[in-house]
Structure formats: C-alpha cells, structure tokens
C-alpha cells in the first residue's frame, strides 16, 4: 500500500503515520514541499495521496490541481485545518476525492482512506453488490433481501448503496452526507442523516428481521458483508 | 526591530494652493501679452491714420506752392505758414526752416528727431499718443515741416483702463480668492486626513466630515467612511466572535476538565476509559462550536461572495424536502405556501438559513404541531416566514436571543444559540431584517426574514 503524504509538520505527519499502521504493507512517503509532492506523485504510482493544505511553499490543492492536470487520477484525500464549507467545496472542486478536517479521529481517517482505496481499486462502481442475502443494484436503483424487494426512498437507497460500496468499513455521518446529499453543499444536518438512516434500518428490519446496519459508537455506521442471519 | 515613524513631518505645503497660484500667474502673463499686443496695434493704427492726414495736408500745401515761381516759394511759404499759425485753424503745426533764419512757426523743433536713415520723427507728449510728421522742400536747405500729434489719446486710455481693470481682477482671483477657495478645499482634505490619522491610531469611531456634500471631496469622504465602517464592523465582528467563543466554549471546556480529572482519579481502567470517551466527546462539542463560530464570523465578515438571483421559494422547497422525513418522524406537519420571492444573495447561505430555522422549529415543536413555511414578494420586499404552533418563546427572551443569542428554553445539545447567530449573520449579509414574533393566534413562534427584493438589494 503506497501512500504519499504532503505534510510539513513533523508531529502531524507522525500522527498520520501511526494512524495508518494498520494498513497492509504500508509504504508511506512523506514530504513537506508542494513541488516535491507533485514530482513524486507524477513519477511513480501511489495508491492514495493525503494532502495537507497549508504547507510551507503553498497549498496542497495546487499540487492536486497540477497532478489532475497531468492526468494523475490517484485517489486523494485532503487533510486540513481549513474547516469552512467553502474550503470543503474548494477541495472537492480541485479534484479531491475526500476532505477531512483536522483534528481528525484516527478511525475516521482510516475509514475514509479505506473507502477511497476501495473506490480506487474497483473499475468504476460495480453494478451489483452482493452482501450475503442483500443484493443492491446501483444502476437499477433496487435493493432486495432474499429476492424480496426493499421499498426505499431515493435518499434511503443512496445511503444503502454507499454503505454497500463501503461494506465492512466505518462510514461517518460526514461521508454519508457528502455522498447522499451532494446537491445541498451545506454542513451535515445530523437530524436528517439520523432520521433517514433509522428509517432505512427499519425498512430492512421489516423485511429481513434484522437491522443489518450497525452503529459504531462515536464514529458512524457499518454494513457487514457477511450479513446473513 | 521596530521602525519608528519619522517625526520630522514634511513642511506643510498645499499642492492645491501651489497649483492655484501657478495657474493664476500663467493666466496673468498670457493676458498681459495679449493686452500689450492689442495696445500696440491700436497705437500703430492711430499713427498710420495721423500720417495719412499729415501727408494729405502736405500734398495740398505743395499744390499751392507749386504754382508759385521758384524764387518766391520761400516767401509765399512763410506767408501761408504765418497765416495758418495765426489762424490756428487746424491741428497741424508748422515750422518753416530757411538758411540763415530762425525757424518760424508753432512746431517745436526740439521735438523733431531725425533718424539715421533721414526719416523724421516727432516726439509725442505721452507714451500712448500717436504722432506724424512730413517734410515739404521749398528749395536748397529750405523746407516746411508739418507735424501732428494726437495728444488726447482717449481711446487708448480707455482700452488701457479696461485692460488694467481686467488684469487687476485676474490678479485678485488668482492671488486672493484662489488661495481662499483652495484653502477651503485643502481644509476639507485635511479633515479627511485627520480622520484617517485618528482612525489609524485606534479611534474606530472617527469619521471624515463633509460626506454629505455632493462633489469629489464629498465622494472622497464617503469612500473613506465606507472603508472605516467596513473595518469597524470587521473588528467588531472579531470582538463579538471572541466574546461568543468565551461564552459558548467555557461550559464544554469546564466539562472536558471534569472528565479529564475523572480519568486521573479513576480507580479502575474501565472507569478511566469511560471518562476518556466522555472527554473525547466533549472535544467534539468544542470543535463543532468553534467551527460554527468561525462560520458565523466568516459570514459576518463577508469573505464569501457568490451573489446571484435566488428564489427563496425554491430554497425553502428544497429545505422542506430535506427535512420532510424528520418532520414525518416527529409527527409534525409542514405546510408550504411558496410564491416566487427573488433576492440577490448566496444560495448556499440562504439554504443554511432555511435548514437551520426548520431544524430549530422541528426540535422545539411537540408531536402533532404544524410548521408553516411561506415565501412571497410584498411591497418591494421578499419575505421568508416560518411559523409554528409550538411552545413559542416569551417576548423578553426573544429580544434577548436576538441580541446575545442565548439558547431558547429547553434547548438540548448544540443548537439554537449559534443557529440563530448564523441566521442573523446571513440576514445581515443580505441586508435583511430578522424578526422574532409570536405566532398568529398568540401561540408558537414566528420567524420573519425581510429581504430587500432583487431590484433594490444591490
């Protein structure tokens, strides 16, 4: 697992490194200079980029924009102190696949990075997710449990599809919000996420007899792939 | 190292005054040249006219003398000159010069000058008057001089008087009125300068005077004052943010401290774990509050600017769509009455306002309540009204909430205080008025945002 980290603060870099220790075969390259980050990432293939925004010689987003300009499509996660909604939008518009605000929970960084890596490794989005008895068809926008149709609202389906695409990984509320309500461009509305999730869970419960989606305390939600009774 | 500003201020000199004087002097020089040229032309024309009169006289006299025999010419000349001088009939003066005799006649020979080329000139009584002279030869060394001077020179004197008067006026304007007027303007610029200095040294209430005058200096004062207002509100915003941060962060930080103390004094590892979890949760609250404060500060500072025409009806419709599952779950009805209401604003901020207000209403209303959402155009304003029939907020607390953004009664979790601060900030940014009132039937809460409509808001 080769990951490039652009971070000029040694403490913060160590924190990221220790967060990533769980990843298999971690090969982490760290640089504090935008120009070097561009050079490294353009020269050899990485599995993911983690970019800080305010480093000595510039903005990690500039490195990302340059790399995207060169056609480098490596999944990128921006890790920044700049927390305003405007900054998130800037990041996503510069070609970032995800944007995480510091200080971050170690679990959240890992969850997001795993989701990112999975997205990067699959060729586009797979059409069908088969998770035990659960079958989610992304293009047809249908979900079935043992061939019984789950009657979901569009947003409930979006959530289920996102959880399925990131099965066995922790999905945070921010990730769900970014994935399922991208048209709103406002900070996550916790009430809205929780109500939609509990309705989704209730609908699955009504058909499958179990909720499937587990709550990971203080972090978010997870859909396990071996979801058979 | 600190560089102190140089204390030796440059000599006070007014660029305006210098410019006024320079223009005045230039004007006077050009006027003088023009005037001198005009005078010269008038005098030259007069001389020419006089010369032609003298020449005519001279020709008439010559005609008379030509009839006489040569040896009598001098005597006849004397007779004619004597008769004419005696009569003093015309303005011509005569002098007859014959060899061996004193000149006779009334022309003062002392006033006659002969130039190197032999032409004659008659001295004039004044520098402005014209003169002409002609010579009629009678024989060897005998001749008559006819001279004429225009001593009255009335026209020239009048022209001179008018010209000098004009020059004096110009000088008065350039050197007396000009400096007075320019000193006034300089004083107005100086007043703006003083205001800038006062503001720069920390008096944020300093404003430049004369902003109401409709000229360039008034415009300068207005521009400077607008800048001061902006800086003042930014600084005020910062102060407000730090006050609010102190207020809103104190409680969670105190709780965090309690949790950490619990970790320290925990008797078992599970208890310490639990307290540490609580401490981490508290830091989330602190971070969320901090982000919200920064958000509000940024909106108030106006650092974001993506203004475009926005239909409030569309914004509210989307917010209602977003929250309809929440409302259904809570057993609260949403009633929409949405007419187009266009404003110039930021779509994202207005969406946050609508979502915030709806979120608040849903949090505070009991099962079975109804929330009404209205947008409409009304007498040059665009209105966004959210009304509920929930518990409402007593009037004194409503005012207090608008001012210091305290939490409403029964508030749980982070929310209304900062939520309303954000609504107020967005309202201010859109020049909108935020009103909290009682619901229509004396119950519930009515939140009204009055925006200037599209045509008037920019």
Computed structural class of chain A = alpha/beta
Shape of chain A: elongated
Provide the gyration radius of chain A in Å: 18 Å
Written as H for each helix and E for each strand, in order along the chain, the element string of chain A is EHEHEEEHEHEHEEEEHEHHEE
| Beta strand count of chain B | 13
Quote the beta fraction of chain A: 15-25%
C-alpha-based Rg of chain B, rounded: 50 Å
Strand line-up of the largest beta sheet of chain A: 2-1-3-6-7
- Number of H/I helices of chain B: 9
The backbone outline of chain B, from C-alpha atoms, is rod-shaped
Give the overall average pLDDT of chain A: 87
Derived structural class of chain B: alpha+beta
List the helices and strands and how they pair.
The complex is a heterodimer of chains A (229) and B (458).
Chain A: E1 2-6, H1 10-20, E2 27-31, H2 34-43, E3 48-52, E4 54-55, E5 58-59, H3 60-69, E6 76-80, H4 85-93, E7 98-101, H5 106-121, E8 128-131, E9 134-137, E10 142-145, E11 148-149, H6 154-165, E12 171-172, H7 173-180, H8 190-208, E13 213-216, E14 220-223
Helix pairs in contact in A: 1-5, 2-3, 6-8
Chain B: H1 15-67, H2 73-87, E1 93-97, E2 104-105, E3 112-114, E4 120-122, E5 131-139, E6 142-149, H3 154-200, H4 216-264, H5 269-301, E7 308-311, H6 312-330, E8 333-338, E9 342-345, H7 347-364, E10 370-378, E11 381-388, H8 395-404, H9 416-429, E12 433-438, E13 445-452
Parallel strand pairs in B: 8-10
Antiparallel strand pairs in B: 1-2, 1-6, 3-4, 5-6, 7-9, 10-11, 11-13, 12-13
Helix pairs in contact in B: 1-3, 3-4, 4-5, 5-9, 6-7, 7-9
């Amino acid at each position: 697992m080769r990951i490039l980290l652009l971070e000029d603060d040694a403490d913060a870099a160590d924190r990221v490194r220790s967060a990533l220790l769980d990843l298999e075969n971690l090969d982490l390259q760290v640089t504090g200079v935008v120009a070097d980050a561009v050079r490294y990432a353009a020269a050899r293939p990485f599995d993911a980029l983690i970019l800080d925004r305010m480093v000595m010689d510039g903005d990690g987003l500039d490195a990302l924009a340059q790399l995207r300009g060169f056609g480098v499509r490596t999944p990128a996660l921006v890790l920044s102190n700049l927390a305003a909604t405007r900054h998130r939008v800037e990041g996503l518009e510069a070609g970032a696949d995800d944007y995480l605000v510091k200080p971050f929970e170690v679990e959240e960084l890992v969850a997001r990075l795993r989701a990112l890596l999975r997205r990067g490794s699959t060729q586009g989005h797979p059409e069908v997710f088969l998770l035990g008895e659960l079958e989610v068809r992304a293009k047809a926008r249908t979900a079935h449990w043992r061939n019984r149709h789950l009657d979901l609202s569009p947003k409930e389906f979006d959530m289920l599809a996102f959880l399925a695409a990131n099965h066995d990984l922790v999905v945070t509320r921010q990730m769900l919000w970014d994935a399922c309500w991208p048209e709103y461009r406002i900070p996550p509305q916790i009430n809205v996420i929780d109500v939609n999730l509990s309705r989704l869970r209730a609908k699955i419960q009504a058909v499958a007899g179990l909720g499937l989606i587990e709550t990971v305390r203080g972090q978010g939600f997870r859909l396990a792939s071996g979801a058979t009774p | 190292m600190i560089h102190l500003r140089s204390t030796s201020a440059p000599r006070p000199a007014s660029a305006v005054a210098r410019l006024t004087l320079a223009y005045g002097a230039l004007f006077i020089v050009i006027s003088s040249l023009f005037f001198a040229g005009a005078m010269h032309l008038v005098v030259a024309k007069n001389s020419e006219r006089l010369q032609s009169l003298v020449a005519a006289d001279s020709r008439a006299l010559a005609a008379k003398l030509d009839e006489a025999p040569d040896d009598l010419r001098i005597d006849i000349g004397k007779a004619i000159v004597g008769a004419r001088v005696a009569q003093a009939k015309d303005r011509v003066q005569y002098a007859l010069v014959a060899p061996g005799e004193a000149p006779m006649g009334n022309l003062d020979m002392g006033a006659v000058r002969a130039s190197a080329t032999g032409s004659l000139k008659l001295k004039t009584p004044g520098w402005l008057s014209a003169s002409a002279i002609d010579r009629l030869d009678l024989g060897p060394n005998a001749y008559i001089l006819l001279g004429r001077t225009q001593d009255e020179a009335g026209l020239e004197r009048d022209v001179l008087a008018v010209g000098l008067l004009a020059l004096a006026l110009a000088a008065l304007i350039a050197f007396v009125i000009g400096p007075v007027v320019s000193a006034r303007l300089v004083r107005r610029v100086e007043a703006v300068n003083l205001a800038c200095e006062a503001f720069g040294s920390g008096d944020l209430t300093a404003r430049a005077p004369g902003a109401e005058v409709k000229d360039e200096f008034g415009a300068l004062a207005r521009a400077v004052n607008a800048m001061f207002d902006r800086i003042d509100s930014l600084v005020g915003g910062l102060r407000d943010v730090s006050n609010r941060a102190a207020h809103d962060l104190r409680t969670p930080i105190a709780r965090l401290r309690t949790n950490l103390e619990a970790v320290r004094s925990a008797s078992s590892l599970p208890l310490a774990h639990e307290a540490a979890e609580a401490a981490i949760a508290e830091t989330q609250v602190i971070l969320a509050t901090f982000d919200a404060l920064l958000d509000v500060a940024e909106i108030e500072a106006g650092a974001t600017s993506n203004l475009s025409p926005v239909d409030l009806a569309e914004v509210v419709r989307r917010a209602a769509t977003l929250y309809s599952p929440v409302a259904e779950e809570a057993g609260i009805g949403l009633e929409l009455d949405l007419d187009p209401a266009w404003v110039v604003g930021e779509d994202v901020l207005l969406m946050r306002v609508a979502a915030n207000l709806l979120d608040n209403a849903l949090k505070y209303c009991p099962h079975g309540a109804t929330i009404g959402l209205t947008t409409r155009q009304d007498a040059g304003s665009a209105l966004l009204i959210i009304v509920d029939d929930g518990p409402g907020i007593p009037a004194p607390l409503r005012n207090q909430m608008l001012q210091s953004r305290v939490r409403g009664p029964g508030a749980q979790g982070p929310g209304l205080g900062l939520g309303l601060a954000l609504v107020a900030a967005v309202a201010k940014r859109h020049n909108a008025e935020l009103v909290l009132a009682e619901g229509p039937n004396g119950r519930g809460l009515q939140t009204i945002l009055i925006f200037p409509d599209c045509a008037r808001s920019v």
